[in-house]
Amino acid sequence: MSQLDQPNTAAPKALDRSDVRVRHDEGVGGAVRAFIDRVRSGDLGMLPVAVGLVVISLVFSALNPVYLAPNNLVNLLFDCATVGIISLGIVCVLMLGEIDLSVGSMSGLASALFGSLWVTQGWPFEVAILAALLAGVVVGSIYALLYNRLGMPSFVATLAGLLALLGLQLYILGNAGSINLPYQSPLVMFGQILMMPKWLSHALGLLPGIFTIVLGMRTIQRRRAANLSAGGMGGLLFKAAVLTLVIEGAVYYLNLGRGVPWMFGLFVALVIIMDYAFTRTKWGRSMQAVGGNKEAARRAGINVRRIYASAFILCSTFAALGGVLAASRLASSSQQAGTGDVNLNAIAAAVIGGTSLFGGRGSAYSALLGIIVIQAIANGLTLLNLSSSLRYMITGAVLAIAVIVDSLARRSRASHGRA
Amino acid sequence: MSDPSSTAPRPGEPVLSLRGVSKNFGAVSALTDIELDVHAGEVVALVGDNGAGKSTLVKILAGVHQPTAGTIRFNGQEVSLSSPAAALNLGIATVFQDLALCENLDVVANIYLGREQDPWQLDEVAMEVRAWTLLNELSARIPSVREPVASLSGGQRQTVAIARSLLLEPKLIMLDEPTAALGVAQTAEVLNLIERVRARGLGVIMISHNMEDVRAVADRIVVLRLGRNNGVFTPEDSNQQLVAAITGASENAVSRRMSRKQNAAMPEGEATP
């Protein structure tokens, strides 16, 4: 361990540094070593996403140079936001080791409900959105009821829901089959053209770095004060610098085209809120605990039923929100909304991003990163003018690969004692 | 059996008092008419053979199972332990035999599970400091509290589970086989800890198969057999009496083994008259 990073070695040993059996990685070299250790033991983190994105962009830009053009990437971000929000809900249920197979139908139902209430019935669109979200809450509550009270496996309950909700969607849309939303309405503008001002996008891009430094320094101070080991400033500054460079670079590139969509901004904001909820609240801790060991969580006094209910309700509500945004993106509520690959894309995104199908492991950022990979593939395949038959096969294969990686990583974690 | 005049002076009122508690699993009566008193500042050892109903009793008191019949009084009031949360809120902490830890969470998260400080903004630093303090009190050998529990050994997990039960400042602690997975030093530490907990005026129920440990700390030894009370003993009572109560006969596997050993040790002429 280098003496340079630790000017206060004369001080009494930190509480968590008294055991000689643990190697304490310090400095940049230590961080790299710890990262390699983590990956080898099956804690892959962002690695599959990073590798996937590099491979995807190399392949598709070689096949079609338009792929990496700023405006294509802007389109890609619009598409990410709708399914990504659905995927955020999927992360909640996957965290518990459960699944919701009906998110596609739920989003379709929400879009149909929203369209008919707003356009056909003439409700104010804010109220129509609330009604659609409320439908999500109701559906989620039903799943929670079926699971908690009747012990119905979630995949069966939601598979039944997939059909039932699709039926309801078709019923609401009636014979017309689709409802066009007015192009000039703020919501459709939000879903299609509203961009952040350039200065604002750059300013927001600085925030993650600033927060990393401010919160990191506060943690270091508090840990030092409590006689716990604390990382050095070097690593913190390095992390913040990399984060800021990547984000500002991306923002600059997108601003060469149309800019950063507000809708994507909303998605990222939701991801950040959910990440806080997962990692910094008692609710998030309980979610992880229930996903890891349900009985242990129950014996620790956690209200397990309420946790399941919160996850199912959040999932369906996010699906409904995704459906409303998808309707605004397409400027229509149609029978096709939420069908096809929406379900699988939302689930695949969460898994590719690193949320385990087996429960107990997950992060809100997996929805963000995973959906970018999924949409990058979908967008690339669309640019190649491939038929939907081929696109389905390729997307299916990608999902299978993601799950295989998840299973292998899980096995490796088990043998390395990392659960 | 719970006659207060029978043994050494007992400080205070019973913290916990069970009358006629029964538990059926279908046709099987796991517990029948159990009577049990635990006073403040008293260590009650619960002993019995496998299947005697010790763990079932502990699970009832922890709120994991609900009794089929009978009353439970805690601090002089009749209570219903409808869920683990209810038991914890009353001040009954349990260290389960099948350790109830979440392997995917780290040690700090496990110790604080279900009672995190500041539910809307977890204070990781304060929780980590308190976790280290608790573990150091137990002389625990935990390499890092930020590793998932999956990487710990059985004994280390046991220590984490015990540390967790202490966090709540309970009035009654139940330990189901607390020393079964522990090494020599940790066993001594756990026994010391039980004495320290007793000195603080808490009631302790301890299940153990290890008679040495039981005698070392218990004030009273309650024997269960086939789901029923089968006598209350003190550490001064002889091992033979205890074993007889546990197995239900003075002529049992343990006594036969003992006499065989004695016979082998004795000169041949005396062993076979």
Structure description:
The complex is a heterodimer of chains A (419) and B (273). Chain A has 419 residues and is mainly α. Chain A is 72% helix and 1% strand. A two-stranded antiparallel ribbon of chain A has the order 1-2. Chain A is globular and about 75 Å long. Chain B has 273 residues and is of the alpha/beta class. Chain B has helices at 54-61, 84-90, 107-111, 124-137, 154-167, 184-199, 211-217, 239-247, 253-265, 268-271, and strands spanning 14-25, 28-39, 43-47, 69-74, 77-79, 92-95, 172-176, 203-207, 220-225, 228-233. Chain B has a six-stranded mixed beta sheet, with helices on both faces. The N and C termini of chain B lie far apart (42 Å). At the A-B interface, helix 8, helix 11 and helix 12 of A face helix 2 and helix 4 of B.
Q: Please outline the major beta sheet of chain A.
A: 2 strands, antiparallel
Spans of chain B of 5+ residues with little confidence (pLDDT < 50)? 1-10, 269-273
Query: Termini of chain A, distance in Å?
Result: 28 Å
Amount of helix of chain A: over 70%
Number of helices of chain A: 16
Class by SSE composition of chain B:
alpha/beta
Can you give the mean pLDDT of chain A?
88
- How are strands sequenced across the largest beta sheet of chain B? 6-7-8-3-9-10
Question: Could you list the spans of chain A in which at least 5 consecutive residues all have pLDDT below 50?
Answer: 1-11
